[in-house]
Each structure stands twice: as structure tokens, then as C-alpha cells.
């Protein structure tokens, strides 16, 4: 079955409907979502509610325009999953209208423009994320530091005001809250490391545990726990056989190999494998985004190649590109290549006849006798018999 994301053609789905599979995948996101909420506050919960609501409304709108059954389609929960993935990927306290643009673009243009569920060549959530990242780079790269570093910790009401109005009743805006963080105003550890390297610092200085780097250590530890939580959710998906191991394992192996080679070349400017795996959005991307078989490779060898190329592309963009965390770009680029990968890595089917090219036999030309000569050779009795008939 290739009609639904996260449904693998080699996994028996007879006892599970698309609705059940989507709910199980959403359940796999719970450990990571709770961890993000713990470290980054109410903005995460607001993002999840807004993005899932926008996704369901966008799906209903398009189905209405296409004269399709709205309720029956919404029950598959694919739009809900897209909204949750995008809500977890964007920074907390992002203005609501940016979330609206990203989700509606993902559902309308990246999903239904190609025919709906099962026909989209790209992961809709990542298309929406990349649109926001390219259109609003400053807002999309400004994550709040972990709650432990915030001097002004917005509560639920203040978080709602910041999301919808950009300012609280106490006249605190999001920029002021970020600026008043305890010595740390960068987005993610990957972003902080990239900025420090561009200023001439070495990795040994940036990552050294010291009083000067205490804010970075606290913030980076929160991202490590977030990635561990998504790793737990990914193992849950593997245990239930909702996804197969090929893509996650090949991505992680490729990231380790490529980053280790670069680190051997110069360990003062190239991050280690553990830093790449547990800083940023690595684990949610490995288990919940790259494993969408509608847009990913579907053959066993193809999945291994697909995952390995994602890992390689990710490290290359992180190291030499403009974006410190480029999982969405790596996935979309390989979504483009997945049909070609499947074409060249199709499994052999045994027990079928091999098509052999038939060589045409040489035909001897037949000598044609003129009709006049035939008529002269025929006897008069023959013609009489023909006339009698």
C-alpha cells in the first residue's frame, strides 16, 4: 500500500487502518513533544494546537473545493500528523500568521496539488517548513533558550499574547525576552557553534565546560534530552513495525561516517558525530520525517541508499552550507531522487520468464503468377463448374 504516509508496502497493514497508523505515529511524537514543552515552555503547546487546527481546516477547505467527502478523509488523521510535525519543527512563540502560511502551503500545495494522500512526491510538513525558513529566516532561526536560562518566563496567557499580538500586557516582546536570557541568545547549539566558529573560536574553546560556557552547556543539554526523547519514540515505531529500520539506520550510519572523517581531518572546526546526532532536529527527522514511504524510497536497497544520501547531504549542508540545521533540505532533495533510486535498485523477481528477443525468420519470396496466365491454364470445364456454383 502506497496510498498513505508511513505505511510500508512490505509491512502487513491488514489489521491496521490508515487512521490507526497515523494515531500510532502521533503517539510516537508524545515523548519528544513533552520534553520540548518542559524545556521551551507554553509556546510549544500553542504551536501544536494552532498547526493541527490549521492543517485540519486547510484539508477540509480543499476537500470542499474538490467535492470530496470531508469527514471520511479527515478521519485518516494525515492532516493532523502534518500539523503536529510542523508545529514541533517551528520555534515557540512564532507569530500565528506564519504558522498559518506554512501549514496551508503544506496541505494545499505540497499535498492536494498532487492528488492528495499517497500521491505527494514531497513530505508536506517539510515543504511548509522550508517555505517559512526561506521567507522568514530571522523568525525561524530564533528559538527561545531553555526555560532555565530565561529571566522573563512567559506563562500561558503571556505566550498566547506573544503569539497573536507580539507583545504582552507588561509590554514585553519576544525580542526582549530573548535578549534577557541569562547570557545566551542564540537559537540552537548548532547555530551557536556556527556563529562562534565564524568569529574565530575553536571547537575546544566553544565546547569546553567552564563558567563562561555554562549557558551553552545548559541549553545544549536540553537539546540532547529532546533528541533522546524522539529516539525513544522512534524505537517505539520500529517495535510496532510501523516503519522499517533501513532508512533510520542508514541515515545515522552515514552521519557517523561522514562526520568522523571530517573530524579526523580537523577536529577544531568540524563537529563530532555525537554533536550532529544530538544537537538540532536529527532524531525527529530520522524517525518521523525521512521514513514517509510516499515520498521516500520503497525498495530495501533503495531505502539504504536513500537514507545514506540524506545523512551525507545533511552533514555537507551543516558543515559547508548556510543553514546550521538542514534536515528539511536534505529530505526534500532526496525526495526528488527517490523514484530514480527505486528504478535502479528494484529487487529481482524470481520464477518469471525471461523476455528473449525473437529473431525474425527469413521468408522466401513467393513467385507471383499473373492472373491472365492462370485463367488461360484453367480448363473450360472448371469455368463451367464455377458458373454452375
Set out the fold topology.
Layout lengths: L17 H11 L1 H11 L1 H24 L4 H5 L3 H12 L6 H13 L15 H12 L1 H4 L15 H9 L9 H6 L9 H10 L4 H5 L6 H26 L6 H20 L7 H6 L3 H8 L10 H21 L6 H18 L26 H7 L2 H9 L1
Helix pairs in contact: 1-5, 1-13, 2-3, 2-13, 3-5, 3-6, 5-6, 5-7, 6-7, 7-18, 13-16, 14-17, 17-18
Please give a quick description of this structure.
By secondary structure, this protein is an all-alpha fold. It has helices spanning 18-28, 30-40, 42-65, 70-74, 78-89, 96-108, 124-135, 137-140, 156-164, 174-179, 189-198, 203-207, 214-239, 246-265, 273-278, 282-289, 300-320, 327-344, 371-377, 380-388.
Poorly predicted segments: 1-14
* Topology pattern, helix = H, strand = E: HHHHHHHHHHHHHHHHHHHH
**Mean pLDDT metric:** 83
* Oligomer designation: single chain
Write down how many β-strands occur, each being a DSSP E stretch of 2 or more residues: 0
Q: Rough shape?
A: globular
**What's the main sheet like?**
none
Approximate strand percentage: under 5%
Give the distance, in angstroms, between the N- and C-terminal Cα atoms: 66 Å
Structural class: mainly alpha
> Residue share in helices?
55-70%
Q: Please, how many helices?
A: 20
The radius of gyration over CA amounts to: 30 Å
Describe this structure in words.
The structure is a single chain. 61% of the residues lie in helices and 0% in strands. With 389 residues, it is an all-alpha fold. The chain is built from 20 helices and no strands. The chain has helices at residues 18-28, 30-40, 42-65, 70-74, 78-89, 96-108, 124-135, 137-140, 156-164, 174-179, 189-198, 203-207, 214-239, 246-265, 273-278, 282-289, 300-320, 327-344, 371-377, 380-388. Residues 1-14 have low confidence and may be disordered. The longest helix has 26 residues, at 214-239. The radius of gyration is 30 Å and the shape is globular. α3 packs antiparallel against α5.
Amino acid at each position: 500500500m502506497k496510498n498513505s504516509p508511513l505505511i510500508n508496502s512490505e509491512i502487513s497493514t491488514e489489521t491496521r487502518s490508515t487512521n490507526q497508523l497515523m494515531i500510532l505515529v502521533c503517539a510516537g511524537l508524545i515523548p519528544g513533544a513533552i520534553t520540548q514543552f518542559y524545556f521551551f515552555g507554553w509556546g510549544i503547546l500553542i504551536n501544536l494546537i494552532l498547526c493541527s487546527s490549521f492543517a485540519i481546516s486547510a484539508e477540509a477547505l480543499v476537500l470542499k473545493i474538490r467535492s470530496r467527502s470531508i469527514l471520511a478523509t479527515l478521519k485518516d488523521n494525515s492532516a493532523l500528523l502534518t500539523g503536529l510535525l510542523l508545529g514541533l519543527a517551528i520555534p515557540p512563540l512564532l507569530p500565528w500568521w506564519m504558522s498559518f502560511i506554512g501549514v496551508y502551503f503544506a496541505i494545499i500545495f505540497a499535498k492536494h496539488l498532487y492528488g492528495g494522500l499517497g500521491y505527494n512526491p514531497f513530505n508536506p510538513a517539510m515543504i511548509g517548513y522550508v517555505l517559512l525558513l526561506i521567507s522568514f529566516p530571522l523568525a525561524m532561526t530564533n528559538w527561545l533558550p531553555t526555560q532555565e536560562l530565561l529571566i522573563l518566563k512567559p506563562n500561558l496567557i503571556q505566550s498566547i499574547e506573544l503569539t497573536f499580538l507580539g507583545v504582552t500586557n507588561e509590554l514585553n516582546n519576544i525580542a526582549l525576552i530573548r535578549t534577557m536570557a541569562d547570557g545566551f541568545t542564540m537559537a540552537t547549539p548548532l547555530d551557536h557553534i556556527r556563529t562562534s566558529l565564524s568569529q574565530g573560536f575553536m571547537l575546544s574553546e566553544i565546547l569546553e565546560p567552564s563558567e563562561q560556557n555554562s549557558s551553552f552547556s545548559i541549553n545544549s543539554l536540553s537539546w540532547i534530552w529532546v533528541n533522546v526523547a524522539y529516539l525513544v519514540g522512534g524505537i517505539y515505531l520500529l517495535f510496532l513495525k510501523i516503519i522499517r529500520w533501513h532508512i533510520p539506520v542508514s541515515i545515522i550510519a552515514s552521519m557517523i561516517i561522514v562526520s568522523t572523517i571530517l573530524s579526523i581531518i580537523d577536529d577544531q572546526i568540524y563537529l563530532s558525530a555525537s554533536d550532529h546526532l544530538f544537537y538540532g532536529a536529527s532524531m525527529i527527522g530520522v524517525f518521523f520525517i525521512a521514513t514517509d514511504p510516499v515520498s521516500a524510497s520503497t525498495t530495501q536497497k533503495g531505502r539504504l541508499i536513500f537514507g545514506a544520501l540524506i545523512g551525507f547531504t545533511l552533514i555537507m549542508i551543516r558543515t559547508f552550507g548556510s543553514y546550521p540545521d538542514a534536515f528539511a533540505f536534505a529530505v526534500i532533495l532526496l525526495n526528488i531522487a527517490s523514484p530514480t533510486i527505486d528504478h535502479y535498485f528494484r529487487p529481482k523477481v524470481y520464477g518469471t520468464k525471461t523476455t528473449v528477443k525473437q529473431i525474425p525468420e527469413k521468408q522466401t519470396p513467393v513467385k507471383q503468377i499473373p492472373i491472365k496466365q492462370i485463367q488461360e491454364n484453367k480448363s473450360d470445364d472448371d469455368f463451367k463448374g464455377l458458373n454452375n456454383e
